[in-house]
Amino acid sequence: MAVCLITGGAGNLACQLSWTLTEQFERILLLDVAPKPVGPISPASTFEQSDLLDLDALDAHFARHRPTVVLHLASLLSADSEQDRARAWRVNMDGTFALFETALRRGVKQVLFTSSVAAFGGPLPKVLGDETPQWPDGLYGVTKMAGERLGVYYHRRHGLDFRCLRLGITISRYAHSGAASALASRAFIEAAQHREFTFRARPETKLALIYVRDVLRAFAGLLAASASRLSRRVYNVSAMSVTSRQIAEAIQRRLPSARLRFETDEAVAALLASWPEAMDDSAARRDWGWQPEFDLERTADDFLAELRQESSNREPSPARSSSDDKRAME
Q: Which of 5, 33, 55, 227 has its CA 20 to 30 A from that of 98?
């Protein structure tokens, strides 16, 4: 029986993956220290509250459910990592090490780790490649970079089928409102809910973005890829490279009454300008057929439709798979 265990299982991405991955797995176990998931989970899924750092409990979950694949999403994010470095190290590093060790001991076939553009730092090229040198500026990025290296070690030395997606800025309903990386997400959300948004970035600032529905497809695609086709273990994935002005224009075309303006905050603008304009994901496209479906126009249509549905007091539908999207258009 194909069983998938997802750490960080209470989070929005895990909840959506519980629906996306039902075609690949007969059962899905969501584990998280939080008491319950933030959204609906699929009927094929079970949620259990558990601390990744409780090694006995972690082993018991593996022994009882016998997962064949593990998706490691659990992580303390950037701001929290800086505020509590000791806890960030325990969760992001000790927890990851414990998970790899348990997966190896319990005969798990495959582990997929989520990394981030934060694993890079310093002066970066406009196009970020898979092999761009990694000198992260924050502790969160340090732990993501180290997690990548740790997984490659377990693959090379111990034969664990480690795979990793390195994500850029994700457009999502649950993007953190105070984070600079949430600029695009908050622009859509605030415009839909309040009919106004102020961009603190420069209009010409270009960002490497990916819509959450494409993120879900990327997970499914890399999980299903034949190991014989993989030329590497860590893959960049991206979907679009657009300016802040283009985002504003896409929203304005769909919400003509929205008041969208630019008031540059130099600190925010400098931070965004230091990030790459694009991510080279040619290896993912070559090795396992990665191809994004959502450009800016389709993202704007889909995301604003979801936000309108939410504002009309109807529960948003679970994330659709690519095949669901195609059926809806037919």
A: 227
- Is residue 140 annotated as part of the catalytic site, yes or no? yes
* 313 confidence band (pLDDT: 50, 70, 90): low
Q: Which CATH number fits domain 172-209+240-323: 3.30.565.10, 3.40.50.2000, 3.30.420.140, 3.40.50.720?
A: 3.40.50.720
Q: What 8-state DSSP symbol labels residue 228?
A: G
pLDDT digits (tens, 9 = 90+) for 92-106: 999 999 999 999 999
Crossing angle of helices 244-254 and 183-194, in 10° steps, is 20
State whether the Cα torsion 57-58-59-63 is positive or negative: positive
pTM: 0.90
- CATH 3.40.630.10 applies to domain 3-170+211-237: no
The answer to whether 291 and 210 are in contact (CB under 8 A) is no
| pLDDT of 40 higher than 90 | yes
3-state DSSP assignment of residue 192: helix
Q: Name the pairing type of β-strands 240-243 and 206-211.
A: antiparallel
* pLDDT per residue as tens digits for the range 263-299: 999 999 988 888 999 999 999 999 999 999 999 999 9
Q: Tell me the one-letter amino acid at 196.
A: E
